[in-house]
């Protein structure tokens, strides 16, 4: 799968085993594509953080998620589009955790939304079938805005050996 390469890849020796090497962005993209659960962090209007699990799909160099129009995360995004998405494993000695930092941009292009709806259903099953209408997914409970986050900065935390890789994008 072709993808946008980071402008800078850096292994942080302060948090990495001496045997560690910088993580591959291509491997990170594979993990982002295959991961089922992500944690989204947004900022409430009063500055407090809000964290919630959700489903997401990777497509064309961005991670996409959706949410109901009146859910806390969308209300937060109306005030501040800066987000963090995380995924990984809940184990100490194996796997890799990934952190994506960027701006959540609402996707309204109906052709792109159609592609994303098909990806959602293929990845998560028929319970996650969406029609596309008026620049959003149409769900059981009404319109569902879709947001894409192209990484500005991403971190990979490998666990065997321990390492921290930072990828920065132009």
From TrEMBL:
Residues 29-127 form the Pyridoxamine 5'-phosphate oxidase N-terminal domain. Keywords: Oxidoreductase. Transmembrane segments: none annotated. Gene3D superfamilies: Electron Transport, Fmn-binding Protein, Chain A. This is Pyridoxamine 5'-phosphate oxidase family protein. Pfam families: PNPOx_N. It comes from Streptomyces niveus. PANTHER family: HEME OXYGENASE HI_0854-RELATED, PYRIDOXAMINE 5'-PHOSPHATE OXIDASE-RELATED FMN-BINDING.
């Amino acid at each position: 799968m072709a993808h946008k390469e980071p402008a800078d890849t850096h292994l942080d020796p302060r948090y990495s085993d001496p045997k560690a090497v910088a993580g591959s962005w291509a491997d990170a993209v594979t993990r982002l594509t295959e991961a089922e659960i992500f944690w989204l962090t947004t900022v409430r209007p009063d500055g407090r953080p809000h964290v919630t699990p959700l489903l997401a799909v990777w497509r064309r160099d961005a991670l996409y998620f959706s949410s109901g129009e009146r859910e806390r995360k969308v209300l937060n995004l109306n005030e501040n589009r800066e987000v963090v998405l995380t995924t990984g494993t809940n184990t100490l000695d194996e796997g890799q955790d990934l952190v994506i930092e960027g701006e959540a941009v609402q996707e309204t292009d109906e052709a792109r939304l159609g592609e994303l709806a098909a990806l959602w259903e293929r990845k998560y099953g028929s319970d996650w079938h969406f029609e596309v209408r008026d620049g959003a997914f149409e769900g059981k409970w009404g319109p569902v805005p879709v947001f894409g986050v192209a990484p500005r900065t991403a971190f990979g935390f490998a666990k065997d050996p321990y390492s921290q890789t930072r990828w920065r994008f132009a």
